[in-house]
Amino acid sequence: MSSKHPHTISRAGTSGKRQNSTIGTSEKRRNESVDQHEEGGDDAEAVTPTLSRFRPLRGCEIAVVVVAALAMVLGVTMLAGGYHALLNYALRQELAIKEGSRAYGMWKSTPVPLSLRLHVFNLTNPEEVKEGAKPILQEVGPYVWREYHEKHNVSFHDNATVTYLQQRWWVWDQEASGGLSQEDTIITLNTIPVASTYSMRNSPLSLYFLDKIFKITKEQLTVTTTARKLLFDGVQDPLLDWAQANIVAKNGSYHFLMPFLKDSPVAQFEKFAWFYKRNLSLTYDGVFNMMTGQDTLDNLGRIDNWDGLNSTSFYTPPCNEVTGSAGEMFSPHLSRQDQVFFSSDLCMSAKLFFKEEVRDAGLSAYRYWGTNHTFANGSTVPGNECYCVSGTCAPMGLLNAESCRMGAPAFVSFPHFYAGDPFLLDGVDGLAPDEKNHSFYLDVVPGVGVPAAVSVKLQINIHLTPNPSISMLSKVPEVYLPMLWFEVQANMTPDLASQMKTLLFFLTSPVASVVVWAVLVGMAVLAVLVVVVLAWRRNSTAAYQQVS
């Protein structure tokens, strides 16, 4: 059998050998795989201890991450509107009048330099005026004093108001006055006989005796004096001297008349001057009650009452209302609407009208100014009939201050009758009204409500009228005679303007708020990234050293 199939047997043997060879190769490969697997197992065991020793963040790094996270939250909140809410809160804390706020110090003692600039009208033809001639005036000035304001007896109340007395005083400024002197000679109308006659104009018997007294005391229609006496120190007058000796003095021959004259200037003053007894007076301006803005800044600086009253007896409603700003602080939420301010000098609230936007000390400000509607009668502004006093209505451009000035025929206007009825200029010579020199304006910075520039210009006039019962007044012309005009001037200091610019920049610039808080968020993110990178590098270095 075997001899017959030799090739078959040979192939089978060859096939077996190949099979054995294949099996051997597979086992070898399996053995190599096992060896490699065992070697791989050694590497895994080497890595496992390294990962188990991953180092956690250090305490300072955790602190940085926490602070950065808080900064990111704060920054996002501020970018979403919290910044302006916070800034408005801070603004209220700084602008509201309360002890400790920045505004309180500025309000209590005015930090902005003030100046009082007085212009006196010299009467150049006094003898002719006595005979009925038109007065010829010569303006002399300005006589300049530095003016200071300070609040006293300050008392805060639970209704967000503050009560106080205002003290003002003036110091002569020779440098600003130039070549003028307080000893300059001034010829002016003697207001004492004019005021006395006016107060008794409706009593023929009183006028009869008054004319006798004028003759006994040798009273004169005009007076020659110095600028110092006319403005502050006081002018000696024979009628006042007589009244002090015979009426005011308890042993005077006519002391029984005192109850009838106790409120008259004849009984109250022993001398006459336009600012007599005002220098350093605590009580002359009255008692103010003002809103502090602690409840809302919309009320900041608004007058609440004066001398304990919300209205005065000097005019009829609604002209007698005590309202508007007290004149030193305004709501930061200004609009281009009219502004009302209360003046104790005028005994009334006056209205200023928006004119334009201006630049003062590099700041944008709203200018409010006086127009022909500020001192307007009922024919110009319907409803202003309530400014008439005792049936006397002033021409356009004049305010009847008779009741405010103890019955004297005093009228207030802008200098040189600016914005007044043209007929006022026809009564005198020597006036030339001009907007630049004679307009009243107030510049207020919106956003903070702080005045940037103030130019309060007012003129005092006496209504001179003939009276046949008084010898010295029988022939005089009827005229509104200018006596003097003054300007209270103030401008924001460069230092204060710089502070306002910084505050307004952050308050009104959306770019500033976005940049500030975006930078804060970016710095927080950067801080977290730095911590992460440092931790990764530290642990990578540790792993490398373990493998080696």
Count of discrete alpha- or pi-helical segments spanning 4 or more residues: 15
Mean pLDDT: 82
Low-confidence stretches: 1-26, 36-52
| Distance N to C terminus | 70 Å
Radius of gyration: 45 Å
Q: What's the β-strand tally?
A: 15
* SS strand fraction: 15-25%
Q: Strand pairing plus helix content: what structural class?
A: alpha+beta
- Please tell me what the overall shape is: elongated
Helix content: 25-40%
Write down the secondary-structure element order. Answer: HHHEHEEHEHHEHHHHEEEEEEEHHEEEHH
Q: What about the largest sheet?
A: 13 strands, antiparallel
Summarize this structure briefly.
The protein is α+β, with helices and mostly antiparallel strands. 38% of the residues lie in helices and 23% in strands. Helix 1 packs across helix 15 (510-547) and helix 2 runs antiparallel to helix 15 (510-547).
Note down, in words, how this protein is organized.
With 548 residues, the protein is an alpha+beta fold. Helix content is 38%, strand content 23%. It has 15 helices and 15 strands. The protein has helices spanning 6-52, 59-95, 102-108, 126-130, 174-177, 191-199, 204-217, 227-233, 238-248, 258-261, 265-268, 423-426, 435-438, 494-508, 510-547, and strands spanning 114-123, 137-156, 161-172, 185-189, 222-226, 287-291, 303-306, 339-343, 348-360, 363-369, 399-400, 410-413, 441-445, 450-464, 479-491. The strands form two sheets. Strands 1, 2, 3, 6, 7, 8, 9, 10, 11, 12, 13, 14 and 15 form a 13-stranded antiparallel beta sheet that branches. Strands 4-5 form a two-stranded antiparallel ribbon. A hairpin with a 4-residue loop joins strand 8 (339-343) and strand 9 (348-360). Helix 1 packs across helix 15 (510-547) and helix 2 packs antiparallel against helix 15. The radius of gyration is 45 Å and the shape is elongated. The model is unreliable at 1-26 and 36-52 (pLDDT under 50). It holds the Pfam family CD36. Residues 1-47 are annotated as: Disordered. The chain crosses the membrane at residues 62-86, 503-536.
